[in-house]
Amino acid sequence: MNIAVVGTGYVGLVSGACFAEMGAEVTCVDIDAAKIERLRNGEIPIYEPELTGIVRRNVAAGRLRFATELASCIGQVEVVFIAVGTPPDEDGSADVKNVLAVARVFGANINKYTLLVTKSTVPVGTARKVKETVLEELEKRGVSIPFDVAANPEFLKEGAAVKDFMSPDRVVVGVDSDRAKEVMSRLYQPFLLKSFRVIFTDIASAEMIKYAANSMLATRISFMNEIANLCERVGADVNLVRQGIGADTRIGNKFLYPGCGYGGSCFPKDVRALVRTAEKNGCEMKVLKAVEEVNTEQKKLLFKKLNARYPEGLADLTIALWGLSFKPETDDMREATSLVTIDLLRASGCRIRVFDPVAMNECRRRYGDVLEYADDMYEAVAGADALLLHTEWKQFRMPDWKRIRSLMRIPLVIDGRNIYDPVEMAEYGFEYSGIGR
After folding, report:
1. Are the CB atoms for 79 and 97 separated by under 8 Å?
2. Strands 198-201 and 64-67
3. What number is the average pLDDT over the span 81-89?
4. Which domain holds residue 269?
5. Which of 77, 108, 292, 388 gives a 20 to 30 Å CA spacing to 194?
6. How far apart are CA 377 and CA 225, in angstroms?
7. What residues pair up with 173 in beta bridges, in sequence order?
């Protein structure tokens, strides 16, 4: 099958590379000519395990190509995926102008039946706007060429995106014609030979599923963070509480881990967008508004704990941060908790020394020389008055605590992900603070 993927960001590049890995002929399209040239040379703009090898292998095999214009390949493809960005507007709603721009190019250039699929996260009703845009372009040309529109939201976890795409737990596809259903079935069949886990729905439901799924996960996180904060007040251990409620099969144990707040490119944006969609349709999402409010406050928690420990102020202290990305196995710092902490620390007048296994360049891009960048986790804590852990990278899980104790000026550890044992930390001579413990 010959397909095009418009947008070479996180979703588009992973999708295109994985379709090519499964044997499809794929052209990834992006208007950023410099980015396309780097991709042609095997340079991957994002950090994602396994992605570099898949891209280079399929470029070498001739199955994966890159272009700056959809018009250059649209005559050969059966399916065009829209995987462009949908950034939030000032009111929190998703901006779909880039999606509609692709629809215009599609309508202006198709010459045979082609399926146009939105893979970008878009509000309910976007597919209808996409279809109207294509029809407008066809009318301008004075032609009647058959096409369909479908919705195929992505459920990729950063850090495990390749695995998620190649072995999905489910694929959601919204269609309104048998022909579109047949094309999408044929496209995903190779990924699901043993169990065809494609959920076909109407288009509006597919668009809603993406937002509802991310909002549910965000809700679980904020709920557990509120429980954790209460546990600290009443002397309970949130880890034991989590185990107790997670053993209930109606609840399960996923996304019940308290911490210093969620971030990334999906949860914050999607929660806000769903709230805004509801408002436009005369509904109020009271629960999701609370989810967002809890998360906003939770991101300040590590700084609040640090401030409580040093009530006289943080000026002239050295604070070390382990972890900058919003989660492990990615260099993505979008809406990361570390950004909130860094901004609060900067306002307090302290020295800030940071280390992350892969997100250092992204941090430099954002902050320049106002931070100190350590070469490793131990250099980060040298002479520090506190260590704040934001991201639970594997290499942070079993550090040499004796060495760290000798390097730090004040042995204070504030653990934003509850990955350390309070008893063990006390035995090593550390003052330790977790979340809800």
Report:
1. no
2. unpaired
3. 90
4. 211-297
5. 77
6. 27
7. 200
Give the single-character DSSP code of 94: B
Q: What is the pLDDT of residue 193?
A: 74
Residue 375's contacts (CB-CB under 8 Å, 6 or more residues apart) are 355
- Which tokens is 398 given? 């079993």
Regarding whether 389 and 256 lie in a shared domain, the answer is no
CATH code where residue 78 lies: 3.40.50.720
Domain boundary among 157, 178, 201: 201
Contacts of 54 (CB under 8 A, 6+ apart): 17, 18, 20, 21, 162
pTM score > 0.85 for this model?
yes
**Contact (CB, 8 A) for 324 and 362:** yes
Give CA–CA dist 356/211, Å, rounded: 30
Per-residue pLDDT tens for 331-344?
999 999 999 999 99
For residue range 373-420, list pLDDT tens digits in order: 999 999 999 999 999 999 999 999 999 999 999 999 999 999 999 999
pLDDT in tens, 119-147: 999 999 999 999 999 999 999 999 999 99
- Amino acid at the residue 199: I
Q: Is residue 416 part of a domain?
A: yes
CA quadruple 170, 176, 179, 184: dihedral, nearest 10: -20
Question: Where is 272: in which H helix or E strand?
Answer: helix 267-280
Do 28 and 152 belong together in one domain? Answer: yes
How far is the C-alpha of 280 from the C-alpha of 274, rounded, in Å?
10
Residue 206 lies in a domain: no
343 occurs within a structural domain: yes
Angle, vertex CA 309, rays to CA 306 and CA 313, nearest 5:
80
Strands (DSSP E) contained in 32-135 are 64-67, 79-82, 114-118
In this structure, are 250 and 384 located in the same domain?
no
Interacting residues of 86 by C-beta distance below 8 A, sequence separation 6+: 94, 95, 96, 98, 99, 120, 121, 122
Out of 266, 283, 350, 363, the active site residue is 266
At 78, list the tokens.
Answer: 């059966």
The sheet that has 318-322: what strands, in order across it? 372-373, 351-355, 318-322, 386-389, 412-415, 431-433
Check if 266 is active-site: yes
Does residue 108 sit in the same domain as residue 10? yes
Q: What contacts 307, CB < 8 A, 6 or more positions away?
A: 314, 348
Task: Concatenate the DSSP letters of all residues of 326-360 into one string.
Answer: SSTT----TT-HHHHHHHHHHHHT-EEEEE-SS-H
CB 335 within 8 A of CB 87: no
Angle at 41 between CA 37 and CA 46, to 5 degrees: 80
